[in-house]
């Protein structure tokens, strides 16, 4: 029997259908079952949620509470997540396909820890007095912005929501959250748990729906003071344009990645490097923005490394996400599964060598499963090395020395994350021998900045 889930929006503390009565089906990628009908919110629903959030902010029902009181409520909110962890984990697994053991141990716990951390920070972050001459006094005071719009992706629905709503609520803002239409259920349940914890009605609203119909109206809304988004680079660019087209609201975006994982021949523990490379790309079915999908292996150890990687791949065969032993579950929906399989075909067509996987799996279940996939012989100009696949596909490239791998790793528009495996700390920091004295520390390799870089080689 299917659990009974409520797919209605949550606005001003009440569960509501979309104003035009439209819904969309929430289909589980586990087995194709219909989980529930979800409110298909549009402009009028977003307007109602923003009006509710603005009223809650203006009358200070939340921002006007003493910091210690907001702290207690947020900590109770975190406790509510843990107390309802089994329910939330099941909901997350059925909705987006990740193994239930990770939904419970990683997603629920991480979301609760995030909310608890910001709850604890409420009464510990101080304002400042600027250093000035004795004739002046300059005060720096941290105040809530007002109404914060939040748009989150489908790969970590609870965690991504917590990352956005927890600091916004801790600061005293009101929130309107638009979850992905691919995984809307836990966001709606989080808002209910927030009410139960004592967050006043209107402070935390959830409007499920599609990007053009609910996300765009939120980003374009003249009474939203800030828009926070995690998702694709393409949509992130649109969010910034919409912020500029409306009221020049602040836009905070965390976008895609094509992270390089670099293994030198002097890696002190090759087995551990292989386990990390394989386990990281196949974790969460490869549906992670920071997934190390580009693996660079020094030529002298390439064959040995690939042999070990291929031997580990069968251990990540997709299986029923509701089984506690499963380590790789279902792709979020058929559309994404077909996208992943198209990338696999492009890899084969462009000349990469398919070492393992590359096929749809568990077809008879009615779910959306893809085998763990490993390509060798990949070059930086291939589509699978350039574009974010968001699936369990590992592209293995080779390099000859530090300069070569720095050049290849930087042939990307992304710069979210990177990893380096080496025994040599100078090599890890991208330094090459000085032509004058031969010492590695004398001449660092030129660093290239990415549009969102948080790492340097």
User: DSSP strand (E) fraction?
Assistant: 15-25%
The largest β sheet comes out as: 6 strands, mixed
Give the uncertain stretches in residue-range form: 442-457
Total strand segments: 21
Q: How is the largest sheet built, in terms of strand order?
A: 14-17-18-13-12-19
Shape: globular
Distance between the termini: 53 Å
Round the Cα radius of gyration to an integer and report it: 24 Å
Please state the structural category: alpha/beta
Helical element count?
Answer: 14
Explain what the structure shows.
- This protein is of the alpha/beta class and 457 residues long.
- It has 14 helices and 21 strands.
- It has helices spanning 43-58, 67-83, 85-96, 100-121, 157-170, 185-197, 211-220, 233-245, 270-282, 302-312, 334-349, 383-386, 402-409, 425-428, and strands spanning 9-11, 14-16, 23-27, 34-39, 128-129, 139-140, 147-151, 174-178, 204-206, 226-230, 250-254, 260-263, 294-298, 353-356, 360-361, 369-370, 373-376, 393-399, 419-421, 431-432, 443-444.
- A six-stranded mixed beta sheet has the order 14-17-18-13-12-19, with helices on both faces.
- Helix 6 links the parallel strand 8 (174-178) and strand 9.
- It is globular and about 65 Å long.
Summarize the structure.
By secondary structure, the chain is of the alpha/beta class.
């Amino acid at each position: 029997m299917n659990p009974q889930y409520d797919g209605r929006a949550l606005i001003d503390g009440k569960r509501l259908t979309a104003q035009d009565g439209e819904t969309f089906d929430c289909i589980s990628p586990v087995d194709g079952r219909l989980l529930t009908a979800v409110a298909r919110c549009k402009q009028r629903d977003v307007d109602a949620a923003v009006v509710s959030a603005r009223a809650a902010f203006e009358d200070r029902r939340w921002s006007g509470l003493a910091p210690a009181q907001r702290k207690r409520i947020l900590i109770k909110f975190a406790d509510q997540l843990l107390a309802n962890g089994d329910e939330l984990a099941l909901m997350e697994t059925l909705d987006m396909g990740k193994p239930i053991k990770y939904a419970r141990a990683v997603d629920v716990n991480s979301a609760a820890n995030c909310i608890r951390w910001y709850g604890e920070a409420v009464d510990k972050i101080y304002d400042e007095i600027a250093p000035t001459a004795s004739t002046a006094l300059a005060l720096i005071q941290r105040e809530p912005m007002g109404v914060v719009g939040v748009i989150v992706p489908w790969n970590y629905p609870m965690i991504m929501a917590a990352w956005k709503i927890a600091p916004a609520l801790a600061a005293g803002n009101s929130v309107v959250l638009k979850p992905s239409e691919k995984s809307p259920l836990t966001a709606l349940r989080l808002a209910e748990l927030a009410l139960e914890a004592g967050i006043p009605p209107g402070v935390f609203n959830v409007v499920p729906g599609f990007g053009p119909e609910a996300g765009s109206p939120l980003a374009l809304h003249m009474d939203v003071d800030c828009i926070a988004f995690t998702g694709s680079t393409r949509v992130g660019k649109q969010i910034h344009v919409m912020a500029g087209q409306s009221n020049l609201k602040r836009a905070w975006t965390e976008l895609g990645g094509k992270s390089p994982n670099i293994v030198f021949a002097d890696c002190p523990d090759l087995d551990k490097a292989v386990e990390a490379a394989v386990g990281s790309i196949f974790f969460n079915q490869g549906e992670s923005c920071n997934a190390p999908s580009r693996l660079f292996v020094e030529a002298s150890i390439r064959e040995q490394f690939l042999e070990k990687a291929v031997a580990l791949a069968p251990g990540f065969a997709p299986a029923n996400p509701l089984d506690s032993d499963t380590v790789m579950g279902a792709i979020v929906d058929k559309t994404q599964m077909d996208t992943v399989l198209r990338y696999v075909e492009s890899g084969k067509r462009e000349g990469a060598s398919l070492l393992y996987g590359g096929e749809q799996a568990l077809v008879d279940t009615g779910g959306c499963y893809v085998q763990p996939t490993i390509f060798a012989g990949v070059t930086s100009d291939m589509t699978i090395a350039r574009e974010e696949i968001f699936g369990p596909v590992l592209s293995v490239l080779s390099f000859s020395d530090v300069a070569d791998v720095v050049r290849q790793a930087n042939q990307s528009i992304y710069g979210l994350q990177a990893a380096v495996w080496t025994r040599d700390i100078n090599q890890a920091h991208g330094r090459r021998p000085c032509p004058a004295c031969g010492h590695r520390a004398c001449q660092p390799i030129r660093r290239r900045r990415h549009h969102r870089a948080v790492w340097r080689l």
